[in-house]
């Protein structure tokens, strides 16, 4: 009897030794529209997570607005490769996403969001997710939900319900919290504590942002301090939602958490509002935190990275291979990154509807430069930006606001950076017939976001 028991124990030990290790749950959070320099006092939850995580100080988005940026994070490709732009917002079914790969490799994939650009009816960016939970927003330019927010509370409620009922592991959980996006309208308790000197109904509307871009407001007469404070109140609201999510996730045993933003925000920077018409640092420098203690130690990493790297990182964590890694390097190996790695961002230009809106608001506004296609590359401390035929070079160490163009006199450096800019995206804009005929409800929601007309 004892001999038989010993054999059984030995067999169990042998089975335990040969069993595949448990795959981690992966939680990917996008704090929509949070620029990197907005992180700090206003983001205590993100700060606490960063203290026990890998914090990447030099992280850059591949695009300055939602659709191409999410396309790049989900595919590991530059916008010129995955093709999601205003002209063709639908993601090609030929492009493989994180979610589709993980779904094929034993992962439960689920997405929570309120930004209508992420919906199947608008872009198909969530291809591969087995569950998609949208918290509707809208309201004729107000972009508010039934809870008078930007969908965050309902999104968090949906997540809590799913976590309480889910018994499937491993899972890949994607969340987009939209709260920092225009309109800037912080919660009442934040206003009472930190904005009591402002009217209780003080809001920076989407319409005002369009008016500013149309040249209808003199920048020197705008109270930028007020607008920044309202924006940071919204950033704090997004951080509170992150805190609620982390609380629901519990002790994070066998759970990876990635937190970033899809893009930043211009708040008077470069004489612009919102996140169109630009590929400047204010729009593409984003926070990036990776909690993966069993894979990468806590600490601050200054190596340059891109949000496209999230694709390769998630696949490595899940033990999944892909041949789609030309512009994506795993964040788990920062020491392999050169400090002069070319970091590319692209902008195919605004939608025709947005162009018409700006022109209608102010026919005298010079728009030739405003509406140009833009690409930029940063290598080390240098950033080269190409807008149409215009080429500018900035030294980001001594000129972080990109006010002094040093292209003249540095022609050889400009040529080198243009070569770097050309090589990472060898393709032209993807030739994929994906024009989208939006249904009336989606069109109304996207009008509220300020993107279409």
Short note summarizing the structure:
The chain has 453 residues and is of the alpha/beta class.
- Which ranges are low-confidence, i.e. pLDDT below 50, for 5 or more consecutive residues? 425-436
Number of strands: 17
Beta strand %: 15-25%
CATH topology: Alkaline Phosphatase, subunit A
Largest sheet: 8 strands, mixed
Helix content: 25-40%
What order do the strands of the largest sheet run in, or round the barrel if closed?
5-4-6-1-7-11-2-12
Whole-angstrom Rg = 23 Å
> Which class do the helix and strand fractions yield?
alpha/beta
Mean pLDDT: 89
Q: So how many helices?
A: 14
Shape: globular
CATH class: Alpha Beta
CATH superfamily: Alkaline Phosphatase, subunit A
Characterize the structure shown.
With 453 residues, the protein is of the alpha/beta class. The protein has helices at residues 2-18, 44-51, 66-75, 79-82, 98-103, 152-165, 188-194, 206-213, 224-249, 281-284, 309-318, 352-361, 411-422, 440-449; strands at residues 25-31, 54-56, 59-60, 108-113, 131-134, 171-177, 255-260, 266-267, 273-274, 285-286, 288-291, 299-301, 305-306, 343-347, 374-379, 382-387, 390-395. It has a single domain (23-349, 432-449), classed as Alkaline Phosphatase, subunit A (3-Layer(aba) Sandwich). 32% of the residues lie in helices and 16% in strands. It has an 8-stranded mixed beta sheet with strand order 5-4-6-1-7-11-2-12, sandwiched between helices. The protein has a 4-stranded antiparallel beta sheet with strand order 14-15-16-17, with helices on one face. The chain has a 3-stranded mixed beta sheet with strand order 10-3-13.
